[in-house]
């Protein structure tokens, strides 16, 4: 079971002192059978009281107010977390039965939220270019894997061309972006086929080079697969999500999972610096830092890898289907 120490720093710097800074943070890792938080130290400028509660999607959310005039706001989170590998889904049930199962649950709460398509002017272009209908001829699992691979292959990983406010329409036309953009496009495609899909924020922590987003804040997607549940898919790296990904929050999109957001009284000019480092059990540390102006994209690091962590798995699934 991998163990990671993750240090995540967010620093706002203001040209002149501001006041009444009200903030929301989602920096508390998910706690479940596959992820155990050993320790978390959270330090905030001014040491304000942090009110922690669970939101509609089950995420731990913190809110705080810093009323005194200040020229800097620093939010420093240090966590120690252990992750556990989870079994991958089997695909033995017929595709007809699985699609019927998805039809039967599409109005259930909270799945209905993860099927609702957001405003998107290029939805018809996406249907045409991806030939969505072809994915209904295979099982939901195979469809999800193929769509994940489609995003990975057709979109370029380029930092700085998008922000958190870039729309799905703009991402589709650019055919480029970073992890949150890849995730948003995959969400549209999965929901288009009738597969519930939710956005996930967190970190990817492989102890080697070659994965985009390594040692940084990251985003991916979870698809709801019949007879299995939520399956994590990382379109930025074309891989399954397992014990090398640390989950912070889930939601309909980035807005539901933003690690830090807030408001304050004062001039609008300010700068934002985000830094993440990951330490491993062997002492190796991976750092990722970016200094940018608001609004800021999720930071990413690493290089594109041609390796496909589930290509062999897909081939195995396809062979099983041919034998049925």
From TrEMBL:
Endpoints of the signal sequence: none
InterPro entries in UniProt: Bac_transglu_N, Papain-like_cys_pep_sf, Transglutaminase-like
Start and end residues of each Transglutaminase-like domain: 171-237
Cross-referenced Pfam families: Bact_transglu_N, Transglut_core
Superkingdom classification of source: Bacteria
PANTHER family attached to this UniProt entry: BLR5614 PROTEIN-RELATED, SLL1049 PROTEIN
UniProt-recorded name of the protein: Transglutaminase
Organism: Niastella vici
Higher taxonomy: Bacteria, Pseudomonadati, Bacteroidota, Chitinophagia, Chitinophagales
């Amino acid at each position: 079971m991998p163990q990671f120490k993750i240090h995540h720093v967010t620093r706002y710097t203001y040209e002149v002192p501001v006041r009444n800074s009200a903030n929301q943070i989602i920096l508390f890792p998910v706690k479940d059978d596959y992820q155990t938080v050993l320790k978390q130290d959270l330090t905030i400028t001014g040491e304000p009281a942090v009110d922690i509660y669970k939101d509609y999607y089950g995420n731990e959310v913190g809110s705080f107010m810093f009323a005194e005039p200040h020229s800097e706001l620093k939010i420093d989170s240090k966590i120690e977390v252990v992750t556990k590998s989870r079994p991958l889904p089997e695909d033995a049930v017929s595709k007809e039965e699985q699609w019927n199962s998805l039809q039967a649950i599409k109005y259930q709460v909270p799945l209905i939220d993860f099927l609702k398509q957001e405003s998107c002017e290029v939805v018809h272009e996406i249907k045409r270019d991806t030939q969505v209908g072809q994915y209904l001829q295979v099982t939901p699992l195979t469809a999800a894997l193929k769509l994940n691979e489609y995003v990975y292959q057709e979109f370029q990983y380029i930092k700085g061309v998008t922000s958190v406010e870039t729309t799905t329409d703009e991402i589709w036309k650019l055919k480029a972006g970073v992890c949150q953009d890849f995730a948003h496009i995959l969400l549209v495609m999965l929901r288009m086929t009738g597969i519930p899909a939710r956005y996930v924020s967190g970190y990817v922590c492989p102890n080697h080079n070659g994965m985009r987003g390594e040692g940084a804040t990251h985003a991916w997607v979870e698809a709801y697969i019949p007879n299995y549940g939520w399956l994590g898919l990382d379109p930025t790296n074309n891989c399954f999500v397992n014990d090398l990904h640390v989950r912070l929050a889930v939601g309909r999109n980035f807005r539901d999972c933003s690690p830090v957001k807030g408001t304050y009284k004062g001039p609008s000019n300010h700068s934002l610096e985000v830094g993440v480092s990951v330490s491993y059990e062997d002492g190796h540390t991976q750092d990722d830092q970016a200094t940018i102006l608001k609004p800021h994209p999720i930071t990413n690091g690493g290089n594109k890898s041609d390796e496909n962590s589930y290509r062999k798995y897909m081939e195995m699934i396809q062979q099983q289907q041919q034998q049925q």
